[in-house]
Amino acid sequence: MQPVDLSIVIPALDERDSLPDLIEEIVQVCDGLGRTWEAIVVDDGSTDGSTELVEELSGENPAVRGVRLRRNFGKSAALAAGFEYSSGGTVVTIDGDGQDDPADIPLLLEALDDGADLVSGWKRTRRDPISRRLASRVFNWFTARASGVAMHDMNCGFKAYRGDCARSLEIYGELHRFLPVLATQQGWRVAEVPVNHRPRRHGKSRFGVERYLRGALDLLAVVFVGRYEYRPLHLFGGLGLGLTVAGFAISLYLTILKLTGEAIGSRPLLFLGVLLIVVGIQLFTFGLLAQMVVLARRESAGGGLNPAQIARSVGFDPKPTVPGREIDDRLGAATRDQPGK
Fold first, then answer.
1. What is the tens place of the pLDDT at every residue in 119-150?
2. How far apart are the first and last CA of the chain?
3. pLDDT class for 315, splitting at 50, 70, 90?
4. 29: left (phi > 0), else alpha (psi -120 to 50), else beta?
5. Which residue in 144, 185, 143, 151 sits closest to 168, CA to CA?
6. Is 78 in contact with 72 (CB distance < 8 Å)?
7. What does the alpha-carbon distance between residue 156 and residue 120 come to, in Å, rounded to a whole number?
């Protein structure tokens, strides 16, 4: 298949009733953009007949395509599959529940044209229960301060990406909530625009407070990996060195007391000083080992710079932004057309 200008990626789980109207709206909007386009519905293990519906819609309009996962792997896996199968120079993601308004797609694309690499929608007026709105506000406030990426609606599924940006992001687990953070850590420029949010007309929300509890742990992982992925010694070594110095200072103080004739054998401070020295040395050693693992991994991967970190070059032959992700060579037309792919 030939690459297109715009890929619309739609992760969906049991959204058979919502998809027909959503696809119809997407077709109307994209046909008016003057660009070649494709809509990729990623069926995340639906059991309500969504797969058969997508096959029917694809038969009616070849621009509508589908990818079915073998089971429910989660939204991150669905987005990763959609990015992998997309061929557009621009990628837009929109949830399959119909609450996002496809009429706002031009707004996202306009923000990309203004220089952003990732544009996230901001559901300024949310049509969700108050419990979900409050949990989302707490989540976004905490995420913005922990990551340094200030956004009103980090987890909005309605986003637009430059194709190179989308296909450079490593999404797994439940990291789809932090895509602007992951993009910022790679040096991509992110922006946010208000979008219309509509009430859910079909099905039921899969919202649960436990998602945000897991999200807090994922945020810690994202922040840690983003800051210390290639320099773990700076974290563990710094902590270890600090604890070791504190332990030596306590031990030196107790040594002076001992030399002046005071008994220190039963003082809790003695045990604290020894503990700080032991733990500090362990953390420092752990940091060294982690740094060696990082270096070994980079050497096994061939080392060098990640091409996704290069914004542009002048005077050189064009090179793929993300090696190994060329669309036709990567998948091949035959692979794309296989049933169940």
1. 999 998 888 778 778 888 888 888 888 888 88
2. 15
3. low
4. alpha
5. 185
6. no
7. 7
In contact, 143 and 178? CB cutoff 8 Å: yes
- The predicted model scores a pTM of 0.74
- Are 89 and 3 in contact by the 8 Å Cβ rule? The answer is yes
Looking at residue 225, its pLDDT comes to 78
Q: How many Å apart are CA 61 and CA 37, to the nearest integer?
A: 12
Sign of torsion over alpha carbons 7, 8, 10, 15: negative
CA dist list (Å): 238 to 222, 235, 245, 280, 283: 20, 5, 11, 9, 9
Contact 223, 143 (CB under 8 A): no
For 106, what's the count of Cα atoms within 13 Å in the CB-facing half-sphere?
A: 10
User: Tokens 């949990």 sit at which residue?
Assistant: 135
Output helix, strand, coil percentages for the chain, rounded to the nearest 5. Answer: 50, 10, 35
Q: Give which of 157, 309, 149 is closest to 230, Cα–Cα.
A: 309
Least confident residue range of 36-45, 55-64, 272-281, 320-329: 320-329
Q: Give every CB contact of residue 23 below 8 A, 6+ residues apart in sequence.
A: 39, 41, 57, 61, 64
CA torsion 176-181-187-188 (nearest 10°) is 60
User: 10 Å Cβ neighbour count for 204?
Assistant: 8
What was the pLDDT predicted at 264? Answer: 84
CA separation for the pair 223, 148 (Å, rounded): 9
